Amino acid sequence: MRYIIIGAGAVGGTVGGRLAEAGHEVVLVARGAHAAALRDGGLRLRTPEGIRTHRLPVTEHPTELGELRPDDILFLAVKTQDATAALDTWGGRPVAGGGTAAERLPLVCAQNGVESERIALRRFRHVYGVCVWMPASHTEPGVVLAAGSPHSGMLHIGRYPAGTDDTVRRIAEDLEKSRILAPVVADVMRWKYAKLLANLANSVEAVTGPITGDEARSLYARARAEGEAALTAAGIAWVDDEEQRRARADRVRFDPFDGSPRGGGSSWQSLDRGTGSIEADYLNGEIALLGRRHGVPTPVNDALQRVANTFARERRPAGSMTVAELAREVDGG
To answer: Which residues of 163-194 are buried (b: 16+ CB within 10 A; e: fewer)?
Structure first.
């Protein structure tokens, strides 16, 4: 199988690099300065074992590949706010032997939040969800840091909306041989809703920096309490903390390269790169949506969504607001 990594950033770059190391055929899809750096210098993947440079095919648009192959796997790793454009670009591409990518090829969705799979299923027949647990970062063109050890991450994977099949088992087997744990689960969205609750902290971290003090932890706790209430009202199940601990145990450790604490997560990285967008609409905004549909107040998530989007739109520096200022925004002060 050939893996086409649509969005070769932190997660996509780590997965693509690790698959390539294990001997799998990989194509990286990227844009702008990152695409240029990948073409010129290769993908520089830094892991606890050292730096490896992968000289892989790089494309900015599927027309550069010509007809897609029947054995292609489309691995979607762009942020959810970019998913619709990416799916529209790739869905109609012809596949050798007839049909289109949307009709014939597996599409693997590896984003935070729970919306990308639903967006994909409107276009693609064969959609797979992934719950991403991977300490990786991408803030410099051509460079991806993957600090997980002894495995780069854990990707729970299954069919969307539920179930398993031979395709997902083959993908999982390839990932497992590439230093990425890939448990196959029939209830992948239950795992993704658990990750969604954890990701409600992303906006706090993005605008104020690492969550270390009691005030920041309190903001996250309040956002999570709203999230749990909204999921409960909607009748949505999620994996509890104990089941997550049993699954992950010590199998993916954060192994910093220089002894420093872990850098910011995916939302922080978006602000740091000045992309102009952030995933808050599909994290805090998902809870706001459920709250409005089921009569659950979500004022903390509403405020975090608004502040994070303002930071992204105005390209404010990551971590440039104090926790006290954010708390005042949340409380209407």
So the answer is: ebeebbeebbebbbebbbbbbbbebbbbbbbb
Cα angle for residues 178, 19, 164 (degrees, 5° grid): 75
Find tokens 């999620």 and name the residue. Answer: 238
Eight-class DSSP state of 277: -
CB 80 within 8 A of CB 92: no
pLDDT for residue 254: 84
Please list, in sequence order, all residues whose beta carbon lies within 8 angstroms of the beta carbon of residue 189, skipping any fewer than 6 positions away: 114, 117, 129, 160, 161, 162
Residues written for the chain: 333
pLDDT, residue 81, reads: 97
Residues 287/226, Cβ–Cβ less than 8 Å: yes
Instruction: Give the DSSP per-residue string, 113-126.
Output: SSSHHHHHHTT-SS
pTM of the model: 0.95
Tokens coding 149: 């050890």
User: Cα(101)–Cα(123) distance, rounded to whole angstroms?
Assistant: 10
Coil, helix or strand at residue 54: strand
Cα(19)–Cα(299) distance, rounded to whole angstroms?
42
Q: Which residues contact 56 (CB under 8 A, 6 or more apart)?
A: 16, 20, 26, 27, 28, 38, 42, 43
64-108 pLDDT, tens digit per residue, is 999 999 999 999 999 999 999 999 999 999 999 999 999 999 999
pLDDT given at position 308: 98
